[in-house]
Design goal:
- InterPro entries: Lipid/polyisoprenoid-bd_YceI.
- It comes from Streptomyces niphimycinicus.
- This is YceI family protein.
- There is one protein chain.
- This protein is mainly β and about 300 residues long.
- The strands form 3 sheets. An 8-stranded antiparallel beta barrel has the order 8-11-12-14-16-17-18-19.
- The radius of gyration is 25 Å and the shape is elongated.
- It starts with about 30 loop residues before the first strand and ends in a 10-residue tail after the last strand.
Length: about 300
């Protein structure tokens, strides 16, 4: 059975010594591993699955490494397969033999990056609105989720020679909000919510690109809405670049998500609730499903 993930205090990576001194159930042994990233740093959040090698190949333990990259499980004597997987990493498979009373030092396992998609070439990439969606999910207080989208927006991506120096900008027409209900949409456009008459646009401009692993990137920058700017983080998955579309033009795609806190944008929700106005929950999930075309002298104009 899996035990609690180990915690440790250290200033440098020490040798583990003769073994981990942990109490073992009668008739059991222990397996532990220390998972490192491709540059040798502790890697938390890697999924570890332990399966019996013989018989029905039953899974006997499954958990993720702790923030220090450690995983520990007590096991009955026998042979097991240990599979380690993580986003943007090549799976790593081990075969281990567990003996009664065995508690060896954690086995160090260094993960390798999975094959990366080729990044888009430097230049300006324009959003293709018919193949791009800006969606959101908001929790309706006391009821089900409300799904909506913005139907009018513009923007693009500037890919720099060094990817970390790239930029993304999105300008959304706030009045184009659509949740499939006219009464609700008009209310969302009103001064109670987006106040589109005074704040007609929602604007995001990245100021930081950070590679995480594999196709995963983090984009940070200010999001301005309802007259207030707050820094937000977009968790972004790059989906690749291909020739295709209207005239077989070069295009790239990505999926980005963020969680927004409604109180960051100075809406007087408590007064609205006191007045009996149904409001959304404390957070809103934002999703940008983007396709962008490489801008050149013959970039096609998207259809209306």
């Amino acid at each position: 059975m899996p035990l609690a993930l180990l915690r440790r205090m250290r200033t440098k990576r020490p040798d583990r010594g003769p073994g981990l001194r942990i109490p073992l159930p009668v008739g059991a042994g222990a397996f532990s591993c220390e998972v490192l990233d491709p540059v040798g740093q502790a890697l938390g959040g890697v999924e570890v699955t332990v399966t019996e090698t013989r018989g029905a190949a039953r899974t006997v333990a499954k958990a993720t490494t702790d923030p220090h990259g450690l995983f520990l499980a007590t096991l009955e004597p026998g042979q097991y397969t240990v599979l380690l997987t993580g986003s943007g990493l090549q799976p790593n498979r081990l075969t281990v033999d567990i003996a009664y009373g065995q508690s060896e030092p954690p086995r160090r396992v260094q993960m390798e990056p999975s094959q990366q998609l080729e990044l888009p070439p430097p230049g300006t990439w324009l959003f293709d609105p018919p193949h791009t969606a800006i969606r959101f999910i908001a929790r309706h207080v006391g009821m089900a989720n409300v799904h909506g989208r913005f139907t009018r927006f513009r923007g693009g991506i500037h890919i720099a020679e060094r990817m970390e120096d790239s930029r993304v900008e999105v300008v959304i027409d706030a009045s184009s909000i659509n949740t499939g209900n006219n009464t609700r949409d008009n209310h969302l456009r009103s001064a109670d919510f987006l106040d589109v008459e005074n704040f007609p646009e929602i604007h995001f401009a990245s100021n930081r690109f950070t590679w995480r692993s594999g196709p995963k990137w983090t984009l940070q920058g200010p999001l301005t809405m309802h007259g207030v700017s707050r820094s937000v983080t977009l968790d972004t998955t790059y989906l690749g670049a291909v020739n295709g579309g209207y005239d077989q033009e070069l295009r790239c795609a990505a999926l980005a998500t963020a969680e927004l806190h409604r109180e960051d944008y100075t809406l007087n929700w408590r007064n609205m609730l006191a007045r009996g106005i149904a409001v959304v929950g404390p957070t809103v999930k934002l999703e940008l499903d983007i396709q962008a075309m490489y801008r050149s002298h013959d970039t096609p104009t998207p259809p209306e």
